[in-house]
Amino acid sequence: MSNSTLNDRDIVFACRNLHVSVQDKDGTKELVKGVDLTVRKGEKHALMGPNGSGKSTLAAALMGHPSYEVSGEIWLAGERIDELEPHERARKGLFMSFQYPVAVPGVSVANFLRASLAARRGQEIPVREFRKEMTTAFTELGIDRSFMSRYLNDGFSGGEKKRLEILQMIMLKPVFSLLDETDSGLDIDALKVVSAGINEATGPENGMLMVTHYQRILDYVKPDVVHVFMEGRIVRTGGPDLPRQLETKGYEWLLEDSAVGSGGTS
Amino acid sequence: MSTKQNVASINQDYTEKYGFHDPEDYFLKAPKGLDHEVVEMISRKKKEPDWMREIRHQALDIFTEKPMPKWGNMELLGELDFENIHYYIKPKGEQAQNWDDVPENIKNTFERLGVPEAERKFLAGVTAQYESEVVYHSISKDLEKLGVIFMDMDSALREHPDIVRKYFGKIIPTRDNKFSALNTAVWSGGSFIYVPKGVKVDIPLQAYFRINAENMGQFERTLIIADEGSSIHYIEGCTAPTYSSDSLHSAVVELVALKGAHIRYTTIQNWSTNVYNLVTKRAHAHEDAIVEWVDGNIGSKLTMKYPAIVLKGERAHGEVLSIAFAGHGQHQDAGAKMIHAAPNTTSRIVSKSISKDDGRSSYRGMIKVAKGAHGCKTNVECDALLIGRQARSDTYPTMDVSEDDVRVEHEARVSKVGEEQLFYLQSRGLDPDKARMMIVNGFIEPFVKELPMEYAVELNRLIELEMEGSVG
Predict the structure, then answer these.
(1) Cα–Cα distance between A105 and A99 in angstroms, integer?
(2) Domain assignment present for A165
(3) In this complex, do A86 and B423 lie within 8 Å of one another by their Cβ atoms?
(4) A158 neighbors A187 (Cβ within 8 angstroms)
(5) Could you tell me which residues of chain A have a Cβ less than 8 Å from any Cβ in chain B?
(6) ipTM of the complex
(7) For chain B, what are the domain ranges?
(8) Domains held by chain A: number
(9) What CATH number has the domain bearing residue A24?
(10) For the segment A81-105, what is each residue's pLDDT rounded down to a tens digit?
(11) Which of A23, A98, A107 to mutate against chain B (most B CBs within 10 Å)?
(12) In Å, how far are B324, B360, B362 from B390, measured between CA atoms?
């Protein structure tokens, strides 16, 4: 695919020939070995794969995590963003729901949300307006209002953290969301609430990539396209029925079967 | 030399807001250096009773005899030149009870520092010290009617000699350390407070200390006595002009909380980074009394200060809540001492420090449980935050426990402004400066929320300025 098509406003997110490596004491290790991905407006993609396949690394690298060396191209809504800092990507509408959201003691959820919202929208939001928006989002996700004054992710349970991630997704209205193992640590009721939130936050104008180990969440958030990611590559791309196959057959057959790298939705 | 760098690094705002100075125009300026003649002169000018003059002269001998402390920052202490300090400066004019009677220059200085405004808004009394003398003093009529005494220490020595004589140097003896001896020899100004039995002072009293001259030594002496069942909140603030050579601030603060009394003593120390801040602070807490030191150290070149509480009576409670910020060229060597001298006494120390660039902060703490002090509980929490690779933090805790049925908890943490925290906040659109600021503000939040609102705002602003342009 030529780059010119990536300017297509119909494509909300894409990457081309993406390589991600990390430096450790043993030298350079390549974790993502050439990934191509194209997500069109209104599409929900799932990226599945066994533990340790590098799925979370891929998500963090797309968001711009400073620990990784990245080559290749990343496009968001027709613009290259691979040279941008994480906060610049966020302001342009990239969002990531963390598998392990980080605690920031002493900073209230409300203050944090207000600052994030102001950064995303490029202007301060009047207190009253902000309160209203926040209250609506809290109600929607069934989060107790006392959480507004609690310290960010500090002493939250796994489920509470995940709800707060999706609450941010709803409030920040991203163009494209990376959801990293959002279903992990959720009981079935919480999973339903969170899934409803995700569905609500994704409309015909934006897109998302759900990174997940299990297919459980995919019963509630129906993907249009499913990728299987193994050993740093997309080894298979299919439709909504692919997870069922994985459920029964596991992952290993895909490697044997391998038309490795034949993925791609184009 | 490091002093040059210090000056260069002081941010524009400090110079503008606090680092300015008035032209020197004094009634009396002692020549540099310290000897018995200077001590005699100070005491004579103040028309002091003989017993005080004798205490001063003895103190000078003790000061001369005592070696420099062997801890803290011996390198910086070694650079302190006692011969290059003015030990007494008396500004023109008499002490006023109305700002309009304060000499124009000095009044303007305190206006710029926002002291009269704070007084109008939320204080029940103010003293303002300029160099060696308190130039302004006020106390609300209501408090006066209740018998509360709030004045400068020199006036107290004249007007309430019996109380002063009873407590002066009894909490912190002259010999306690080199700098308590120095202060005792040349003390001038400071606050004296007496709160009568059962009187609760709900609105804070404040003292503001200002150094103006270059190579100035300021040695205020403060004594607060809260009689049985009374309560008081006292706040002190301080600033100085930015000079390329050193000044010295060495205070002695003695607190007495009698049975069931409650004293909270809050300090926001923001000296310019050419000031040595070597202060001795100690409290006696009698039966069921509560003493709290809320201690913020933002400024100075070197601070060595370890507020202490001697829990003398059963069930007395002591707290030290402190925050230190050490930026480029600064060393904050701060901490706390708790002496459990009676049964069932409790204490808590929360120490937070932020070190940035090549700044250095140390926590130096001591917990002592005396023989016979059964059933005591103490809890110490030290949190250090490092910003940048050169920043340094050290913890020196000492525990000396002579009883078995005592609960002692000590927790120390050092954290860096973490890459993961920064990345998380950045992924929500906050730029790295803003994200770092948010993490630091969160870190000091437990301290800030103990301050009256106006001070909380000011402290946050100060830290924000210190953080500007920092590299993570």
Answers:
(1) 19
(2) no
(3) yes
(4) no
(5) 63-67, 85-87, 89-91, 95-96, 98, 101-102, 104-107, 111-112, 115-116, 119-120, 151-152, 168, 172
(6) 0.94
(7) 2-305
(8) 1
(9) 3.40.50.300
(10) 999 999 999 999 999 999 999 999 9
(11) A107
(12) 17, 9, 15
